[in-house]
Amino acid sequence: MAGMAVDPPPFYCPIESAIHPDAEEVERRALAWIDRSGLCRSEGERARHAGTRSAEFYARFAPHADPDRLWIAACWVYWGFAFDDARCDEGPFAADPAAFATMAFSVQRALEAPGRLHCADSYAAAVHEIGELFRTAAGPVQNRRFQHAHRAWLTGVQWQIGNRATSRMPDLDDYLSMRLLAAGGGPTYAMLEIANNIDVPDREMDSPAVRALTEMAMMVASLDNDHHSHIRETGRRQTQQNIVNVLVAHHRYSPHQAVDEAIALRDAVLERFLGLRDRVLPRASSPLRHYLTDLGHGIRGNIEWALRAPRYHSPDGVAATSRARIPAQTDTSHWTGTPRTSRQDPRRLPSIAWWWNELAF
């Protein structure tokens, strides 16, 4: 099953393309931080980190952010991809849940602990520095939300590693629950408040409707990434836990049917996201309107970034040519105006069915 090919589909995404005008300067500053961070032990590692194009990634999520906050968020994205490759997908922790837990939560503590801190682990030291930069740039509520989302991400990765260690293929509902956490969407979207210097009131951020919108944005991006990453992960034998393989294993779909069904399920979530967001926006505060708009930018930007990133299109994650300028948007051939219809009614999946309830705001 690990060798099945999944071709990138045209994406249904009726959300406007956007990118921060200072994306290239943000990239320069973030890569300079990477060079100082101690994470690059060789020129090859440095090239792979650069090949994630993490600054472009986050410049599409937060196209109107404060540049002095945006570059810090981009540093975390670079760090996150490096950590994911070295500690989550490969290496001695990737199939050892207990060892991963010990390592990951020491890293989490390094993020949370303010002030001077000695860290023997280079990943812990780097994320501690990012935490200090965030504490300088943003308030305690914004930082607390990011830290809690970061901890949830590491918990999801441990769940994923536990499945790998026991050769367990989760069923569809379990997979969606796990993927919602393990894909890293939580901390990525939590940084929107920090990068934009906004503070969404608790009564809005914690409302069922906004919680659902945040989770739906995370889920759409996570399922899109299942398609983006398949070529790269096939070469590294990392595709066991993928939406396509879950549908093949538990629903007896052919690979082609599984791809169609995965896209249709994703489209159903996006349709619900768009409808619920339209209902909430007229009554939202200015910070929440900014946040909800950038949830959409993240969905669209994640696709546009991944269609170009060497991380997904080069076997070693390194660009084959010199760095090109960042385009505002991708070619129209990558998009479709029509969502697919799913045979799997998402309202019958317990982990996400509540998104379709009458949600309070």
Automatic annotation (TrEMBL):
Residues 329-341 have a biased composition (Polar residues). The keyword Glycosyltransferase does not apply. Its cofactor is Mg(2+). InterPro entries: Isoprenoid_synthase_dom_sf (IPR008949), Terpene_cyclase-like_2 (IPR034686). It holds the Pfam family Terpene_syn_C_2. Keywords: Lyase, Magnesium, Metal-binding. Its EC number is 4.2.3.-. Residues 321-346 are annotated as: Disordered. Belongs to the terpene synthase family. PANTHER family: BETA-PINACENE SYNTHASE-RELATED, TERPENE SYNTHASE. This is Terpene synthase. It comes from Streptomyces marokkonensis.
